Amino acid sequence: MKVSFALLAGLLLVGGLHTAAHASGVEAKDAQILGFWQRGEGEAIIEVRRNAGVYHGVIVSGGQRPETVGIEVFRELRYDAENGTWHGRAYSIKRKREVRIDIEVPKADQLELTAHILIFTRRVEFKRIPDADVTGRQLADR
Questions:
Q1: pLDDT digit string (tens) for 10-40?
Q2: 21: buried, middle or exposed (CB in 10 Å: 19+, 13-18, 0-12)?
Q3: Is 97 domain-assigned?
Q4: Structural domain span for residue 113
Q5: Domain count, the chain
Q6: 134 contacts 36 by C-beta, under 8 angstroms
Q7: Which residues of 63-93 are buried (b: 16+ CB within 10 A; e: fewer)?
């Protein structure tokens, strides 16, 4: 009986440590994906934020299309610690529909998004924009 209790307590402790390590691993990835991202010069700037444990991306500067500011384009992003990638959905403003996406962040200033459209995939790169640059652009957009 004492051995069984000790074994059970040990398993619960290990399981709790694994859960805590997993949760802290996701939080450690915050710095990897949170922030401002832009696909190309003159394009919209997307801010990836975390709200209640869910990550999403919202257009904060519309570039050539200011009417797009405030639209959530990355939805329900979740980190997959096993693969080191993010998964979620993206909203295509042009096509007015959502697609499944995978995101990798191979460098601190580079985000690679793969969109899955039916049987096809499309890969797009984003560059990180420093916070100070975005603040200046947002003021200019007003």
A1: 433 334 433 333 444 556 677 889 999 999 9
A2: exposed
A3: yes
A4: 31-141
A5: 1
A6: yes
A7: beeeeebeeebbbebebeeeeeebebbbeee
The answer to whether the pTM exceeds 0.85 is no
Within-domain flag for 137: yes
Check the CA dihedral 131-132-133-139 and report its sign.
positive
Higher pLDDT residue, 34 or 2? 34
Residue 35: per-residue pLDDT:
96
Residue among 70, 48, 75, 49 nearest 59 (CA): 70
pLDDT value of residue 95 = 87
Query: Which CATH number fits the domain that encloses residue 97?
Result: 2.40.128.520
Over residues 82-131, the pLDDT tens digits come to 999 999 999 999 889 999 999 999 999 999 999 999 999 999 999 999 98
User: Is 3 inside any structural domain?
Assistant: no
